[in-house]
């Protein structure tokens, strides 16, 4: 269950541990991301779970609503969600205040918002007040974007880190650990005497870092024991498609519904953009709608006779390759749907990045892979689909 505290101070007096899941869905709400996120939520060993930001690819509906419902149905533990750089103005409605402290008899976890690579004066004031108030000498401070470190340059500016250090002041020696997300990897470092753990393998793609061996998808277990903190990196199963049949069916039903909803939402977005005279935005949203429709069509075929379509009264005899939902699902079909989802989210994010309110998106040419829905932006379509390998003559230009 997602916790949306009204107060910024949350009592978890008996808690001795918590689980951190980093970047579960920033690459899209695809099958693989959902399956890995589900594994992290259901196998979490901590007394509660913290998502270290980027719980959705784009910080707005329908993404927030979809992932929040998924977490509420899936997690057996309370879930606190940090604010990440993918989050938007609807974050508070779904996840509550971004600055909060979880207080236990064994430790205190202080969560801060630095999703824009900066701390607000209010966040730093909350940090100072909480450090002065809590009695425990075992304190963890968590925020999304890491401080400057020796491993990854994808971090906050040095000046922001100095502002944080100034706010910490005389309570510095009580902070035993800094926990961050953002980087799609796992590494540890020491920053001006403070231990740093960065985790980002809860569902999105894993990126290579020069000084770090490529990690698997993972969660992090943090345990407080007699004033000491123990950090354990817990790998998630890489074989995400080999699960019980009923779990596969539930997952495919969920993602099928997501893509149908996204298709309609993007069509409505296109209509709204046209009303504002934004032809570039309308064209991009139509392309995203077609991509979602193609992904839904692929999942439609997977569900087969015994799945959702049977309940809807649709006479569809078999799934892909002659297999229904009761058989092992073709892994390539699920993988390509995931890639297609990630691609159109990336194109949407790039097109909107840096635009001021009221600006139109740049006009472009878009192609859709008719097999899997993968979206291409550019003057010419490629010779084959990056996701599923379909030949270029299967592509359709978005009109």
SSE diagram, text form:
Elements: E1 9-11, E2 17-21, H1 31-43, E3 49-51, H2 63-74, E4 79-81, H3 91-95, E5 100-103, E6 108-111, H4 121-133, E7 139-142, H5 158-168, E8 175-180, E9 186-191, E10 194-199, E11 218-225, E12 228-235, H6 245-275, H7 279-303, H8 308-311, H9 331-352, E13 366-369, E14 375-377, E15 395-397
Parallel strand pairs: 1-5, 2-3, 3-4, 6-7, 7-8, 8-10
Antiparallel strand pairs: 2-11, 5-6, 9-10, 11-12, 13-14, 13-15
Helix pairs in contact: 4-5, 6-7, 7-9
Count of separate DSSP helical elements: 9
Specify the overall morphology: globular
**Rg calc:** 22 Å
Estimated helix fraction: 25-40%
Strand content: 15-25%
How would you sum up this structure in a few lines?
The chain is α/β, with parallel strands linked by helices and 399 residues long. 34% of the residues lie in helices and 18% in strands.
Polypeptide structure, described:
The protein has 399 residues and is α/β, with parallel strands linked by helices. It is 34% helix and 18% strand. The strands form 3 sheets. The protein has a 7-stranded mixed sheet with strand order 1-5-6-7-8-10-9, with helices on one face. A 5-stranded mixed sheet has the order 4-3-2-11-12, with helices on one face. Strand 7, helix 5 and strand 8 (175-180) form a beta-alpha-beta unit. Helix 4 packs parallel to helix 5, helix 6 runs antiparallel to helix 7 (279-303) and helix 7 packs antiparallel against helix 9 (331-352).
Keywords:
399 residues; alpha/beta; 7-stranded mixed beta sheet; 5-stranded mixed beta sheet; 15 strands; globular
């Amino acid at each position: 269950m997602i916790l949306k505290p009204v107060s910024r101070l949350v009592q978890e007096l008996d808690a001795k541990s918590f689980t951190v899941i980093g970047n579960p869905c920033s690459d899209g709400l695809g099958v693989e991301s959902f399956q890995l996120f589900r594994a992290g939520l259901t196998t979490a060993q901590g007394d509660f779970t913290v998502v270290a930001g980027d719980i959705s690819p784009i910080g707005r509906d329908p993404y927030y609503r979809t992932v929040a419902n998924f977490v509420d149905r899936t997690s057996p533990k309370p879930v606190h969600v940090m604010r990440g750089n993918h989050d938007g103005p609807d974050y508070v409605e779904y996840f509550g205040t971004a600055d909060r402290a979880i207080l236990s008899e064994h430790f205190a976890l202080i969560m801060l918002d630095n999703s824009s690579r900066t701390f607000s004066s209010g966040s730093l004031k909350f940090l100072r007040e909480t450090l002065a108030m809590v009695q425990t000498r075992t304190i963890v401070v968590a925020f999304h974007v890491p401080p400057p470190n020796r491993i990854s340059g994808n971090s906050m500016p040095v000046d922001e880190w100095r502002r944080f250090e100034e706010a910490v002041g005389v309570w510095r020696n009580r902070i035993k650990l800094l926990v961050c997300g953002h980087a799609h990897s796992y590494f540890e470092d020491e920053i001006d005497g403070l231990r740093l753990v960065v985790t980002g393998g809860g569902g999105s793609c894993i990126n290579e870092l020069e000084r770090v061996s490529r990690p698997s998808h993972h969660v992090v277990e943090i345990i407080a024991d007699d004033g000491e903190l123990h950090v354990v990196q817990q790998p998630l199963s890489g074989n995400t498609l080999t699960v019980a049949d009923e779990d596969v069916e539930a997952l495919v039903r969920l993602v099928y519904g997501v893509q149908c909803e996204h298709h309609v939402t993007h069509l409505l977005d296109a209509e709204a953009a046209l009303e504002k005279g934004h032809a570039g935005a309308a064209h991009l949203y139509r392309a995203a709608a077609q991509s979602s429709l193609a992904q839904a069509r692929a999942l439609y075929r997977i569900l087969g006779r015994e799945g959702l379509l049977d309940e809807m009264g649709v006479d569809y005899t078999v799934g892909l390759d002659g297999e229904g939902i009761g058989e092992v699902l073709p892994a390539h079909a699920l993988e390509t749907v995931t890639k297609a989802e990630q691609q159109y989210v990336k194109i949407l994010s790039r097109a909107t990045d840096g635009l001021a309110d009221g600006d139109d998106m740049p006009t472009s040419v878009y192609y859709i892979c008719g097999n899997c829905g993968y979206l291409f932006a550019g003057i010419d379509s490629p010779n084959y689909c990056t996701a599923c390998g379909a030949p270029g003559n299967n592509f359709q230009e978005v009109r």
